[in-house]
Amino acid sequence: MSQPTSGVVGDAGWPDDPEESPDRGARRRGRRHPTRPGVLPAALLTVTFVAIAVAAALTFVGLPYVVMSPGPATNILGKVDGKPLLSIDGATTYPTSGTLDFTTVSVDGGPGVRVNAYDLAQAWLSGSHEILPEEQVFPPQQSEEDAQEEGAAEMAGSQSVATATALRALGKDVDEQIVIAGVPDGSPSAGVFEPDDVLVTVDGDPAMSAEAVRTAVQRHEPGDTFPVVVRRDGKERTVTAKTAESDGRTVIGVGLRLDYDLPVDVTLRTGNVGGPSAGLMFSLAIYDVLTAGELTGGESIAGTGTMDDSGAVGPIGGLRQKLIGARRAGADFFLAPAGNCTEVVGNVPDGLRVVKVASFDDGIQAVRDIGTGDTASLPSCG
Asked: What is the model's pLDDT at position 37?
């Protein structure tokens, strides 16, 4: 996972939104021609010097590519530095066994860290790495700091959605809330809203969803103002939103995210891993810890996939690298998003069985079947 809800649900209308060289022919064979003394050594020295200079230069020339390689797989039910990776306060928890690994991809290159020709050559020769143009992985002009912040936000979002999903599956009520994810420079509402403001009402309408917020905003013309009640630092206050026009729509120029008022406190110690792709595995692990019995039956299971508020599992990038990383970590089963099935076929390491999942319910059923040994009917991508 690259590589990060609070799941980003959009904004209120503000745009953020080798082939090997061909053989040049065999060396010709024929008579040797005499060479004047000293000419050949000088030529060789020149060629050697040029080759060294070019090689040295290549180590300093950054290229606009990204190298994706198998990253570590981490057991969410295990420990990190002697402490549980997953801990839950405010609810009864139960012992677990086996492994539920979230898988990652190591990314070299991108904003602030360019790869060179040697990096690309090694990646091409590895058989397990993938080379992609930088623009396919990172937005244009994104800084290294921005990329890190985005990944961290996506990770935090995936954890929140996973917790809400697991709790709902256990019959718990989970209240949703719409939160200001950010206020871009140049926004008409710069200085009005702050990141993490919780929207309570927008122009008198309850801020029940991102769509409800957009509908309230769209009632106005660019240049209008209207009251918005926000909860900031635990206290409600009224601010005045300012509108502008963007792509033919009225906007207030803020990013929104879906967050939850959770009845339990869930901590996941994931280190500096970013991105949203561990949502499925987080939700399964949280469900396992909050239910009696050992869901995995002691089996080694890895997987990947985003999780949205409806419980749907979404596709991710770097699937092939994650399959390799999972098998290296000892996993016997891998839960893969249905949307990634085309990438699964032909890329499964020996000894790893891939199970197709499209939802949280699919994931729970798959882990339960694996744990009880009822694996004959597990859905696959083949």
From this structure: 46
Q: Domains of the chain (ranges plus CATH)? A: 66-109+142-172+263-382 (3.30.230.10), 175-261 (2.30.42.10)
pTM of the model: 0.76
How far apart are alpha carbons 350 and 150 in whole angstroms?
Answer: 35
Q: In whole angstroms, what is the distance from residue 8 CA to residue 145 CA? A: 18
Three-class DSSP category at 150: helix
In this structure, are residues 207 and 195 in contact, taking their beta carbons and an 8 Å threshold?
A: no
Q: 137 — alpha (psi -120 to 50), left (phi > 0) or beta?
A: alpha
Average pLDDT, the chain: 85
In tens, the pLDDT along 38-83 reads 455 666 666 665 555 555 555 666 788 889 999 999 999 999 888 9
Structure tokens at 293: 């019995």
Beta bridge partners of 105: 70
Evaluate whether 298 touches 367 at the Cβ level (below 8 Å): no
